[in-house]
Each structure stands twice: as C-alpha cells, then as structure tokens.
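Complex record, two chains
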Amino acid sequence: MTDTSTETLSVVVEREFPHAPEKIWRALTQPHLIEEWLMKTDFAPVVGHRFDMRAEWGAVGCEVLEIEPQRALAYSWVAHGLDSVVTWTLTPTTGGTRLRMEQTGFRRDQRQAYGGAKAGWPRFLDKLEDVLAGLD
Amino acid sequence: MANPQDALFKSLADPTRRAIFEHLCRDGEQTVAALTAAAGVSQPAVSKHLGVLRRAGLVTDRHEGRQTHYSAQIKALAPLADWTSAMTGFWESRFDDLDDLLKRMDQ
C-alpha cells in the first residue's frame, strides 16, 4: 500500500488497425500527418528534441524521450500544470497492428486534475461538435 | 480553483487513507478500532484520515453507543470515474481521427 507506482493516474487507449506498423509509424511521426489527427506540431523523431503540440486552446510542451522505429515512441506531455508522459506501442498482429497509447503522470491533486481536464475537455467537446455537425 | 474533484483527488492521494477506503469498500462498515487494527498506524492517525475521507464525502459515520462505525460511499467516486473517462475520451477521439487518416493514406 506504499507502492509509489499507484501514486499517479494513467489513461490507456488501445485499438487494432488494419494497417502495417510502418504506415502507422509515419502517422505518429510526420508533422504534417500528426496535425491531421492530433495537433499542429514541430515534432522530429530525434531523442531529446523539444517540440509543441498546438491547438486553439493552447499548447502542450513535449520532448522526445524514446524512439524505436515502428515499435515504440515516448514523449513528455506538459500543459497547464500537468506533467505527463505519452507512450505509444505498436504490436504487429495477423490483421495489422495493435496500437496502445498510455499517458502516465496524472497526479491526484488539484493542479494536475484541473490541467488535465482543461487540456482534454475542449478537444473532446470539439470532436463531439464535429460529430454532431456531421449528423445532418 | 473551485474544482469539485480536488477534495476527492487529495484524499485518495495518501496511500494509508486509500487503504482505509479500500478496506471499507471491500469489507463493509467497520469500527475505528477494527480499521486501526488493519491500518498499521495509531488510532488518532486513523481518526484523522477518516475525517479527511468524511469531508470529501467518501465515508459516512454512524454513532452507536461509544463506538463510531464508518462505511464507504462508493458513489462519491463518480467524479473520479468521470475525469478518467474524459481523459480517455480525448485519446479515443484522436484514435478516431488517426483511423480516418490511415484510410486516406491508402488512396
């Protein structure tokens, strides 16, 4: 019960895509492609490279922590008092690739929760708005 | 500053407090003495932790003679579950957009 690994909250999202790891890797690492599904960015696949993820509500400060081409990618994700790490893992499957995103480091205190919610909610609502707009 | 989740996150941040809450969730209503026997800290410390949990709405107390019985309010965890699903929702929506992009990359 004193295990420090339980001191932060994590978010894990996993999905299997019918595409080869090579193709998903490009979508995860090429700025013009990242912009199409995540945010506008000056990402470069170099460990230690500092970059931003930018949206209309603000920016997330990031630094590349780990790169293993077509297998794993990790970067820090710092915004509004939130100090977290996003780790991508690609696992080949018979039908394509299982992609796992784990964001760790949400501390159970006010600034972190507030920061996380502040960063996450606007985009969630933007997406919802898009979905609703597309219904007609 | 007035985030309704604050008290909840703060009270569950302490591992001893979280263990007391888990004990109440698992085994139902307990006296302070029973919680102290399982907590590994002194009774005053346990009472202090219970006070924090009570103010966060995570436990309620019931007095019976000289004993105080505590029970977990599992529904008080709802903001934590909501927060987690909001964060997951952000990434789920990014995955939807990634899915769209991957389909277009084939064309």
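Note: Chain A touches chain B through 40 residues (CB under 8 Å).
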